[in-house]
Specification:
The protein is mainly alpha-helical. 73% of the residues lie in helices and 5% in strands. It has five helices and two strands. A two-stranded antiparallel ribbon has the order 1-2.
């Protein structure tokens, strides 16, 4: 709904679009939820990739400089050695400076790209630690554009299976008339019960 309010000596026009503003705000919040606030989540892995990218840039620049120097030595006129460096600095210095200016953009892109697999693995490791500690784990969902999206579904299936097994163990504790001193003893009883069921079902399976 559009509402115009004329106020003040200059007749300022105020436009109120509450529903539209709300939709814009909601859309912005939804989009912000799709992006991680922290791109550098795994310094060990992402730092190694950044050092490798910088090393590739340096060795590429060094290889090109040596190649151009050798080309001038063999094809150019005979003159003092240091004069070749002056020519290289004059002709190819701007290209080296341009590559140095582009290097930060390459580093930022490497961080953003590595975040697409370092971020999911970081969340997966964190939830696995919680699951190993016996805490309740909620289903995880990776963001759009991340690598290995299927890992989230596989982890959710495992977490759901662990939760079901924990419920079965608790039900077995409550329904058993024999008190168990430890979870290890309960697990041994559960394994023995499963083995007994398999032994009883084995003739029927063999006959079929």
């Amino acid at each position: 709904m559009l509402h115009l309010d004329l106020c003040g000596p200059l007749r300022t026009v105020r436009v109120w679009l509450p529903q539209t503003a709300f939709s814009f705000q909601a859309t912005g919040e939804a989009k912000s939820m799709r992006h991680r606030k922290q791109l550098f989540v795994d310094p060990k892995v992402q730092g190694a990739l950044l050092l490798r990218a910088i090393g590739y840039w340096f060795f590429c620049l060094l290889t090109m400089a040596l190649s151009l120097l050798l080309w001038q030595l063999f094809t150019g006129p005979a003159r003092l050695f240091y004069l070749h460096f002056d020519d290289m600095l004059y002709w190819y210095g701007p290209a080296a400076v341009a590559s140095l200016l582009v290097l930060p953009l390459v580093i930022i892109d490497c961080v953003r790209l590595s975040n697409r697999f370092a971020g999911p693995l970081y969340r997966l490791r964190r939830e696995l630690r919680r699951l190993g500690a016996g805490e309740t784990v909620k289903p995880i969902h990776f963001r759009d554009g991340d690598f290995w999206l299927e890992f989230a579904d596989e982890f959710n299936a495992v977490a759901k299976r662990v939760e079901q097994l924990n419920k079965q163990v608790e039900e077995l504790k409550q329904s058993s008339p024999i008190p168990f001193e430890s979870d290890l003893e309960l697990q041994s009883v559960a394994n023995a019960t499963e083995s007994e069921v398999d032994r009883q079902l084995q003739p029927a399976v063999t006959a079929s």
